[in-house]
Each structure stands twice: as C-alpha cells, then as structure tokens.
Amino acid sequence: MNATVHSVDETKLSEYLEPHVPGFQGPVKSTKFKTGQSNPTFLLETASKKFVLRKKPPGKLLPSAHAVDREYKVLKALGNTDVPVPEVFHLCGDETIIGSIFYIMEYVDGRIFWDPTLPEVNNQERQEIYEASNKVLASLHQIDAEKAGLSDFGKPGSYFERQVHRWIKQYRAAETTHYDEVESLIQWLVDNMPKDDGMVSIVHGDYRLYNMIFDHKQTQLLAVLDWELSTLGHPYADLAYQCMTWHIPQIGITPGLFGLDVKSLGIPSEKEYIRSYCKKMKIDTIQNWSFYLAFGFFRLVGIAQGVYKRSLQGNASADNAKELGAAVPILGHIGLQIINNGE
C-alpha cells in the first residue's frame, strides 16, 4: 500500500479543527489504525486529549460506498439511545482540508476482540460478551427510526430484493475473476427471494464482534463501530450476518467458530444465540433462515471483492486487502453449502 495515500496534513487539520471541535487544541499527531478495510481511520492525539478521524478514501471508488456522512448521521442519531456509540463532534464536507470528507468522534478506550473464540477471557466472560452483543443488537432493532430522526435513512420495504441487486451490482463493478460457485449463489438468491414481511428497523450492516469495543476489565459493551453500511432494512440481515461466524472455519483473516466445541468455551451455539435474540424481540421463530445466511455470505463476497479491487488500484485502506481476494471463492462455497444443507 502506498503510505502517502492514507496520510493527513496535520498542520492544516489542526488549524481547521480548533474552531470546529470542542476541546480540540493543536498541535496534533495522527496515526492510522492498521485495521479497517473501508474508510481510513486515524487516532488524533493532542497534548490533552485523543480523538478519532474517519475519512473517505481517495481515488476511484465504487458507487454508493464509503458514505462517511451517513456514518456521522446515524452515530449522532443513536447518541441518545440504548445503543452505545462514540460521540461525534464534527462532519467536514470540505475536501480541501485533508483531501476528502471526514468526521471527528471521541476515542473510546477499551478492548476489541478479533478472534470470536475470545482466547483473552474465561468462559463466564465469553458468555457475557456474546450476551452483551445480542442485547445491543436487539436494542438497535427496537429503536423507532422516525423518533430517532432516521425516517429518511433508507427505503422501507423490499429490503432483501433491493440489497441482493445492489450487491450484485457492486460485485460486478469489482469483479476480477469468474467463480462458478459465486455465480450459483447469486442465481439462488435471485430465484429464492422471500416475500417481504414488512419488518423494518435500523440495521448496522456489519455487526461483528470486531466492530465493538468492550471495557478493559469488565464485559460491558462500550461502543459499536463502523456504521458505514447502516440503513433502514430488515433486522434479520444483521442477525444472520453476525451468525455467519458459526459457519466460518478458524482460519484466515476472518476466523470463525465452525467445527469448534463452542459449549466448552462458554460460547452459545448459533441456535442459542438466535433464540436469545428472538426472546428479546418477542419473535417465536425465524423463517427462511438459509436465505438470510446465504445473503450474508454473498454480501461478504461483495465486500471482500471490493476491497481486493481497491488494492489493485492502490487505494485499499488495510494492508491485508489482497488476502480478502483469496477469500472470495471460499465465502461463496460456504454460502452454497448453507443452501444445500437447508440450514
């Protein structure tokens, strides 16, 4: 990755932020977080305080991707709800400051768990962490979007139909290699679209453990991060996307729980996790679960392929972008397995 692609002019940034962000006083030191495939994210350190800057990447971008202004809007709206999010301070639409639009939010100090087996903690803590994740997801899906000021945050209804076609378009725009299993997955999703059941909620779009910050010592969920893909949509899309973890092996750059004895680790099974969510949502059962899971895997295929394409163009945000390209056919294969097994 070209280091100059993802750097900022600290002097110019500091001069801009002082009158726009409460408590900000330069000079500032910026350090890019190594993780994060979509929008480059920087830790900003001043003499007295830390902030986080998240910006749109430079270069040619896929349509409708990297909408940091949408991230800012949803974070601001959720600030007064039961969903823990970082406080946002300012959205800058002036691309001349650092080369692209960006927003500033608080720095939340805590733990991020990259491995869903949670090797850093004990069994009781693992159970509590998964339960905290489940509780916040249900809380998000129960928020009244209109009261939160997000009634215009997406088109209500026909969510999966629109999303399937959107991600097909995104995938085609980023496609570099033909994969038969990905094509079969796409065709199955188009042919097996469930009827719209009218359920609409605010959805996160990438609800995974590594997008959450937990307290250093306790299992409290302090903040949910990375709202780039959030919209008004179907709550089961979020649930299924998180439940993909139980279908992904403990290998590669996105390790999962497939094939592991999760009970011995204190981690709920996929069915237990779904049951816990349904109880909070007052839902008896979920129909068409295979479709929701398969769609989740296709979305991940589209995301991975998009990151890989950006890496070929020199503007991917993280250094392991090319590894995601190799994951595309594997994710497509898992999606097809779910369909064939009727899970």
Automatic annotation (TrEMBL):
Residues 32-249 form the Aminoglycoside phosphotransferase domain. It holds the Pfam family APH. CDD domains: ACAD10_11_N-like. InterPro entries: ACAD10-like (IPR052898), ACAD10_11_N (IPR041726), Aminoglycoside_PTrfase (IPR002575), Kinase-like_dom_sf (IPR011009). This is Aminoglycoside phosphotransferase domain-containing protein. It comes from marine metagenome.
